[in-house]
Design a protein that fits this description.
10 helices; Rossmann fold; alpha/beta; binds guanosine-5'-triphosphate; globular; 8 strands; 35% helix
Length: 247
């Protein structure tokens, strides 16, 4: 039997989205003060869980709490979103669908541009006054997982480019999907959003899943000897929009 205080604290903070063949449980908003280049910015944070990771079917809050403590959630991946300003109502809101990159986002690796894009998009969102950064935790290595990405890096050190390396390991180059994140987006804002990306597949995903899009802002930067070839391959082979990085 759960403590009544626990249920009281959670009941207005956990929402369920019916996503056709599964449910998404969303917890939040939670106030998250973030250090952004020495300044404290206040975000509202939400995390979500697919019902496939706990018991199928729509669970009551009590059942959900009981399930999560035996579901080994740390072994799975949960994504989240950082919301800034009056995201629901603002006339202009920026969003980023950021794919997790353990090496770039956490360690600051310069082999890719992920860490730069993460920080820069948070800055762009706060400067705009309203927006949301979706951090997609099941997207590592464009969907192949961290261990496979490490193997892909070994192949890249042996002459394969980033696309070939995924394919040589038997993966499609890009297996990411955005469906749940877009369902969460539609739950927290119905008005149009501007997407920060160079990847046209993300624009298509938003359009195909019924999100309202009013534009795109490109995001290139932090080009160095370590990632120049990687960035060029994105444009030449993966279809990223960015003639300017082709030198
Ligand atoms: N397999 C593989 N994944 C990589 C490599 N470098 C970065 N990643 C992953 O690529 C993902 C980011 O994809 P990118 O192609 O850099 O950019 P994008 O998300 O498609 O597009 P933008 O929105 O413009 O950033 C993250 O999940 C990274 O972990 C690599 O060399 N090999």
């Amino acid at each position: 039997m759960l403590n009544e205080k626990v249920i009281d604290a959670l009941k207005d903070k956990v929402n369920v989205i019916n996503n056709q063949d599964h449910y998404i449980y969303v917890v939040g908003p939670i106030r998250l003060p973030v250090n952004l280049e020495g300044e404290t910015k206040i975000f509202q944070w939400y995390s979500w869980l697919r019902s496939d990771d706990v018991e199928q079917g729509e669970l009551s809050l009590e059942e959900l709490v009981e399930q999560v403590n035996s579901a080994n959630l740390a072994d799975l991946q949960q994504s989240s979103v950082l919301v800034y300003g009056d995201f629901k109502e603002a006339d202009q809101a920026l969003i980023r669908m950021h794919s997790i990159c353990h090496t770039g986002d956490i360690f600051g690796s310069k082999r890719c541009d992920c860490g730069f894009q993460l920080k820069q998009s948070m800055k762009m969102i706060t400067e705009n006054g309203a927006g949301a950064l979706f951090y997609l935790a099941n997207h590592e290595g464009r969907g192949i997982g961290l261990f496979s990405k490490a193997m892909a890096y070994v192949l890249q050190e042996n002459g394969f480019d980033t696309v070939e390396a995924n394919e040589e390991l038997g993966f499609a180059d890009d297996t990411r999907q955005y469906k749940e994140a877009i369902s969460v987006l539609k739950q927290i804002r119905r008005k149009p959003v501007i997407l920060i990306t160079n990847n046209p597949k993300k624009l298509t995903a938003l359009e195909e899943n019924g999100a309202s899009l009013s534009g795109r802002i490109p995001l290139w930067g932090d080009v160095s000897e370590f990632n120049e070839k990687y960035l060029q391959t994105k444009v030449q082979r993966s279809g990223h929009l960015g003639e300017e990085v082709l030198v």
